[in-house]
Specification:
Helix content is 39%, strand content 16%. It is built from 22 helices and 20 strands. The termini are far apart. The structure holds thiamine diphosphate and magnesium ion.
Length: 554
């Protein structure tokens, strides 16, 4: 490859600036949008965006967190690389919670971050937005990062970063570029997207896995975010094994919740206690390993893109490294020769679902509001969860029918991520309705992005469940700290008036029926955002169904 490239005539190379080359490289990789907030460090790059506005759309936000969360939401809703661009120092830091979340969610987000003049980096000369060891800070946030130091670096490093975002453990990547480098000209060639290669599938491990799974008496599948592209395979395997599929946050939608084999977290814990073989697909197994326990009677088979992941907590019986889809297809092909006869468990599971529903029934009015949302949000509509009471219950009881239609922040569980993430999802998926749910606390983290929704005509529908409090924190103070309330009550704006002042449509709904009506008209409106405020009293706690104790291993 390298020799061939060296022999290419110099005439192939054309003079271009770093900024133009970077924009061309993004376009060559299929990116059609950039989420961004400008500043002098990146002026040359924004000028290149202006010149190429027909090929790539620039969506500017009101805070860098908004830009990065929008890129995250767009990446999660499309499973395609998405990018954001911010100034160095404060711009980088303003966006960093979103970058951290993208890392936790394995989302293909490319951060383009400005830098002070190249020769001044590391010298502490008090340049605008200078921050000590910016590269070191970025390197702690993502697995792959580099600095574009010259025009020819731009296409090369962008191609490498995008390949890295889909190789091994998928996730974000970051590139820096100094203020004086964006405008530099050089002779360079475009770089075509680099092929993403996967490790060969370990045939011995496939055999070991089907032997164990095929002989299992009480198999259980756990599906995480890494299984979102293997929905058909997980479902087929579940049926072959008559294995229930547990999904909680990032794995919701991998199996259709109308399938009796789909089980929620508390029912999954009961089944974990009974299981002899667990097949974990694209999941950290956070809840089971950290909270429920393991013992010698449980054999764990792990399928993960990240070679480091399977043995992090405890070495599994079998580890299969690579993308879930191809690996599960191999398991499906090899299983029938080893599979026990499997009577249907549908009836047993229907009864257990009914029992679980009776236990969860006390989570009202959360369930009634979620019912209203499900009744109005079409099957392919996207629900974006938040760290709020309705969100916590949605993770257990909101029916999800398709992969990539339920976006949840995963283990970061960072308050305030939701609204801007949903805005990005709706911007990238104009073809389906997106619904953002928020608490009054979390919503105000990025409420300024209502202006972005107006400016870019993004038809996101958002609900603010307003209990006048950081309700989750407040309830903990009431229950566990003798009602000594501290830092948990909130002074709120009039949310309807606030949204209207931005130019958004806004209404208040005071019960589930009113919410249904409000959602129906909101989803019909496709030329801009709608906000629905739902006033709420203090709500019953969902935590007994989420943080549950050990069931194995003493
Ligand atoms: C970034 C971040 N900061 C703080 C928290 C802690 N936290 C979890 S829930 C919560 C309160 C949420 O309030 P609100 O959005 O109004 O939802 P409610 O619980 O009232 O439904 C807080 C502060 C967090 N999860 N993430
Ligand atoms: Mg609240």
């Amino acid at each position: 490859m390298a020799r061939k490239r060296n022999r290419q005539p110099a005439a192939d190379a054309v003079a271009t600036t770093t900024a133009d080359a970077a924009v061309a490289a993004l376009v060559a990789h299929g990116l059609d949008t950039i989420y961004a907030l400008p500043g002098i460090h990146n002026d040359d790059f924004f000028d290149a965006l202006a010149k190429n506005a027909g090929a790539i759309r620039t969506v500017h936000t009101r805070h860098e967190a908004g830009a990065a969360y929008m890129a995250l939401g767009a990446a999660l809703a499309t499973d395609k690389p998405q990018t954001y661009c911010v100034v160095p120092g404060p711009g980088l830091l303003n966006a960093s919670a979103a970058l951290l979340t993208a890392y936790g969610m394995n989302a293909p987000v490319l951060a383009l971050i400005g830098q002070i003049p190249q020769d001044a980096i590391g010298r502490g000369l008090a340049h605008l937005h200078e921050i000590r060891d910016q590269a070191g800070i970025i390197a702690r946030l993502v697995d792959v990062s580099a600095r574009i130091r010259a025009p020819a670096d731009a296409p090369r490093l962008i191609a490498k970063a995008i390949r890295a975002m889909f190789t091994g453990r998928p996730g974000p990547a970051a590139l820096e570029c100094a203020i004086d480098v964006w405008g530099q000209s050089g002779k360079l060639r475009a770089v075509a997207p680099l092929a993403v290669t996967s490790p060969p599938i370990d045939q011995d491990a496939i055999k070991a896995a089907v032997k164990r799974a095929g002989a299992a008496k009480r198999p259980l599948i756990v599906a995480g975010g890494g299984a979102q592209d293997a929905s058909a395979e997980v479902t087929e395997l579940a049926h072959l094994l008559q294995a229930p599929v547990l999904s909680y946050r990032r794995g919701r939608g991998v199996i259709d919740d109308r399938d009796p084999l789909s089980v929620n977290l508390p029912l999954g814990r009961e089944l974990w206690a009974e299981a002899d073989v667990v097949l974990a697909v694209g999941t950290h197994l956070h809840m089971p390993l950290l909270h429920w326990g393991i013992d010698r009677d449980l054999a764990i088979i792990r399928v993960d893109a990240d070679p480091q992941e399977p043995a992090r907590f405890a070495k599994p019986k079998v580890a299969l490294i690579g993308n879930a889809g191809p690996i599960l297809r191999r398991l499906i092909a090899a299983l029938p020769a080893h599979n026990a006869r499997r009577p249907s468990r549908a009836e047993e599971l229907r009864e257990r679902h009914a029992r679980m529903r009776r236990r969860l029934a006390k989570l009202e009015p959360q369930l009634a509001y979620l019912g209203a949302i499900r009744a109005e949000l079409p099957e392919d509509g996207i629900f974006v969860d938040e760290v709020t009471q309705i969100g916590f219950v949605s993770r257990l009881a909101f029916p999800v029918y398709r992969p990539r239609t339920y976006i949840s922040p995963g283990y970061q569980d960072n308050l305030g991520y939701g609204f801007a993430t949903a805005l990005g999802a709706q911007d990238a998926r104009r073809d389906v309705p997106v619904l953002s749910i928020n608490g009054d606390g979390g919503f105000l983290f990025t409420a300024s992005e209502l202006a972005t929704a107006i400016r870019h005509r993004i038809p996101l529908v958002s609900i603010v469940f307003n209990d006048g409090a950081f309700g989750n924190v407040r309830r903990i103070q009431e229950e566990r700290y003798g009602n000594r309330l501290i830092a948990s009550d909130l002074a709120n704006p009039d949310f309807v008036g606030l949204a209207q002042s931005f130019g958004a449509a806004a209404v208040r709904a005071t019960n589930p029926d009113e919410l249904r009506q409000a959602l129906r008209s909101a989803f019909a409106r496709r030329d801009g955002p709608t906000l629905i405020e739902v006033p709420l009293p203090a709500l019953p706690s969902p935590w007994e169904f989420i943080l549950m104790g050990r069931v194995r291993g003493g």
